[in-house]
Design goal:
Blueprint (H helix, E strand, L loop, with lengths): L16 E3 L9 E4 L8 E7 L2 E8 L2 E5 L2 E5 L4 E4 L5 E5 L9 E7 L1 H10 L1 H6 L8 E5 L3 H8 L6 H17 L3 E6 L5 H16 L6 H8 L3 H12 L3 H19 L4 H7 L5 H12 L3 H8 L3
Length: 293
């Protein structure tokens, strides 16, 4: 299985995880319904199956392939095989843990359905399977079926997924949210560095920690990050924290002090100064002007 990993030297094993769909001999699909991780995250990982992920409750930041963006409740995402991805959920003000539903299945399963069922073959006749990760729009039917999978038998889950898989792959209303990094070592290293930030931004991060994650010296990492992004690592980290602060301001009722500590600052006046420098307004004024309420 080692050949499925990207060929990076000195990489710590807990940064990028690989898994296979459990018990493939007895199950065509694998469903996961809860998110119990106390770190409120899906660690950077990749696998050789298709994955559908429906965010029932929660918002935050994700990295998929070469792309980094925010996500919110209600999103349905389709990830192609071997697409690195990492999700970090924000701890919502009401204290509820984030919830998502994940369903995975192999590409072989799709091919077998097309071979066995003429109806599937006809539906997929002119379909080009996506190589990029996509967010589906207009997914009311898909979300309804996914939300009803829990508690059903394996057979019932299979029948329900057969109902919506054609809708997922033939949807014309999609948004690309990540392209594969195609086993390029530099791009993969950058994804791992950004995933480290995604995982650890609420606390103090040292340059040595990130450099150790990639198995290089601090100076080598700084040169690498600047070359790849055009920013210094700490400029990127500061902007990331500002973006996360904006997400929390918009999606929760937390007070400014709590948000300051939640995104990795230890000094409230410094947080307010940096926020105004980057956004042009104080956190409270920015929230008021950008609130959807």
């Amino acid at each position: 299985m080692a050949e499925l990993f990207y060929s990076l030297k000195n990489m710590t094993k807990d940064i990028e995880k690989y898994y296979q769909m459990p018990d493939e001999e007895n199950h065509s699909i694998y469903c996961h319904f809860e998110h119990d991780d106390e770190d409120w995250e899906i660690a950077l990982q990749q696998h050789d199956s298709w994955e559908i992920l429906y965010v029932i409750h929660g918002n935050g930041k994700r990295i998929i392939g070469n792309h980094e963006e925010s996500f919110r409740n209600g999103e349905v995402v389709l990830l192609p095989p071997r697409m690195p991805h990492s999700w970090k959920f924000d701890k919502t003000a009401d204290g509820c843990k984030p919830r998502h539903i994940m369903v995975s299945f192999t590409h072989q399963f799709l091919m077998q359905c097309m071979n066995l069922f003429p109806e599937f073959r006809k539906l997929f006749k002119d379909v080009s399977f996506p190589t990029a990760a996509i967010r589906l729009r207009g997914t009311q039917k898909v979300r309804k079926v996914l939300s009803q999978l829990e508690g059903k038998s394996g057979w019932e889950q299979l029948l329900m997924m057969l109902e919506i898989i054609p809708d997922i792959f033939t949807s014309v209303s999609t948004v690309i949210i990540g392209r594969n990094i195609q086993q390029d070592d530099d791009a993969t290293k950058l994804t791992i560095a950004k995933s480290f930030v995604l995982k650890n931004f609420p606390r103090k991060i040292t340059l040595q920690e990130v450099a150790d994650t990639l198995g290089v010296s601090q100076s080598t990492f700084c040169s690498f990050f600047k070359r790849m992004t055009g920013d210094t690592f700490f400029d990127y980290l500061l902007r990331f924290r500002m973006d996360m602060a904006c997400e929390i301001l918009l999606n929760t009722n937390r007070d400014i002090a709590e948000i300051c500590y939640a995104v990795g600052f230890s000094d409230i006046p410094h947080f307010n100064r940096m926020f105004k420098k980057y956004k042009g307004l104080s956190p409270s004024k920015w929230r008021k002007e950008n609130s959807h309420a």
